[in-house]
Amino acid sequence: MLRADHQAVSALFEQYEKARATTRKKDIVSRICSELTVHAQVEEEIFYPAVKQALKDKELIPEATVEHATLKDLIAQVEGVEPDGEMFDAKIKVLSEYVKHHVKEEQNEIFPKARATKLDMAALGAEIASRKQQLMAGAA
Known about the structure:
The protein is mainly alpha-helical. The protein is built from five helices and no strands. The chain is elongated and about 50 Å long.
């Protein structure tokens, strides 16, 4: 579920790179921000606490949580700028690069360590999917 979210957001960033029309860019960015916001929330509410408890790790999840705070700040900056504004493309570029960094850390460090625990990943995935559906319905 979380890996699929990463792929979906990556595809949206690619669409943004190809988009020329301001209205199209604005629509894509709105979707990126919505996807990232919901993704971060389900990770923080469900995935991170479960993994932190299972791993007894003192740094991995807190670091990811700090990265989420930075992502939220970048999202707020992006949402506060018009697509034809001078800094819009630059902010999207920085957001994209930061998301790529965060995804790489999750997929290379957190996910493998989580799979190595006794966590019921199927149940965790179902809980995440259910919460994501609730959040997306509320955002619509």
